[in-house]
Amino acid sequence: MSYKTTIGLEIHAELKTKTKMFCNSKNDTEEKNPNVNICPICMGHPGTLPAINKEAVKKVLKVGVALGAELADFSEFDRKNYFYPDIPKGYQISQYKYPLVKGGELNGVKITRVHLEEDTAKSSHDAEDYSLVDFNRAGIPLMELVTEPVIHSGSEAAEFAKELQLLLRYLGASDANMEKGEMRVEANVSVSKSDIFGVKVEVKNLNSFRAVEKAVAYEVERQIAVIESGEKVIQETRGWDENKQKTFSQRLKEESHDYRYFPDPDLPKLKISEILEFSEENLRKELPELPWEKRERLEKEFGLKDEAIEIFTQDMASGEFFESVAFHLETEFPSSSPLGNRVSKLADAILLASNYIISDLSGLMKDKNISSNELKIEPKNFAKLIKMAADGEISSRATKDVLKIMFDEGGDPEKIVKEKGLAQTSDNSFIKNIVEDVVKNNLAAVEEFKNGKENSLQFLVGQGMKISKGKANPGALQKLLKERLGK
Ligand code: ADP
Ligand code: MG
Questions:
Q1: Which residue has a Cα nearest atom 7 of ligand 1?
Q2: Left (φ > 0), alpha (ψ -120 to 50) or beta: where does 421 sit?
Q3: Which tens digits make up the pLDDT trace of 297-347?
Q4: How far away, in angstroms, is 487 Cα from ligand 2 center?
Q5: Least packed by Cβ within 10 Å: which of 67, 93, 196, 313?
């Protein structure tokens, strides 16, 4: 019988608030100078009093509503006691018995709880004979989300973390950049041959989604090897070594009673249900469109494919650009045209726009390292370009060329097409000349076509497009070619 893998995640995210969790020091995760955003409260000086940051509480409650979870009626903060140089008070203010949020679900994974605590300071051990501590981070509001042990692979764990990151960004709760430490994932991993859970190991220092996936996979293999060799997995905390791509033992797991949790006597209890602003109804009203709602709408409204939907959902700015283009396309297709015709033409043009955005435009943006909100192209002008392409006024080659010019300089595509002489033409005498050239230079293909090989016609049209440098209207070209060849 093979082994079953069980994973539960504990994910921390620094909340985006103006000030820290219990004082007025600035919450700035970008600050490079050490120990500037500090005050006697977050430095843990004796005799100081913390006060609860309402915005932080609200953000966690909003996460709860988005997850379809249960908001606490009653909640409180507890002291988690331990000594470490990055924890100036000798305890961390956290939540133990009464988290703000319980239950809920994300990506099919059941959530245990979401609670609020304060971040620790940041130590660095780069120097040889001393360590440094930066207290800018001490006291930044930190959300902790714990999942049930219902995940079964590293990739599933990484997918969950990705979706949570997206949700936190949509909610404006956290920027959740993993490489900046704004979101930190810990994976509890166990393997077992029976239905009884195996001994779990907690893996820390996972600084990317890839690391989550790799570390879990490594840990599963390691635990199986331990068991197969007749030994027992020990419950411990392990780190992930990015260079060696291995987990390593850090310390034996501490139990919750080691921390001597007790309610913080300096802070008021929270009767959440009595705070009108925190009512589920109120919070729900403030929720933006959520990622999964957006996916569904993009599918329904525009019939986009999964790949496009995912790009427009993950990259909010490019999603906005696309939707703005789609909006402008509506006016490019006047409602005076026959209805059925208009609807299908508009739908096709919107799909064409989506394709150009996720392939050509994205390619240009990647090359120049530009994001969608830095684009010089106005959505309205992008819509005009797509309309010209959809109507066959310009070839796909010309569309790409105009797009490149618009990308570099902005501008009106109609003007650019005129200036560069890129418009396709159905002009009879122009196309007839092309047809003559094609026929003269491709006698073999002409013969084949006359003998019934339909494919040869496409080849000949292609040759004509080439000779005309994309300027011949392919429909007109095909029609005149057929006439010339007596079909
Ligand atoms: P602890 O008290 O040791 O911190 P918790 O019950 O709080 O343990 O669980 C912490 C995390 O570990 C949760 O995400 C939970 O889903 C996960 N977990 C619990 N048991 C297991 C197990 N046997 N295998 C994998 N993950 C587990
Ligand atoms: Mg725990």
A1: 146
A2: left
A3: 999 999 999 999 999 999 999 999 999 999 999 988 876 666 667 778 899
A4: 79
A5: 196
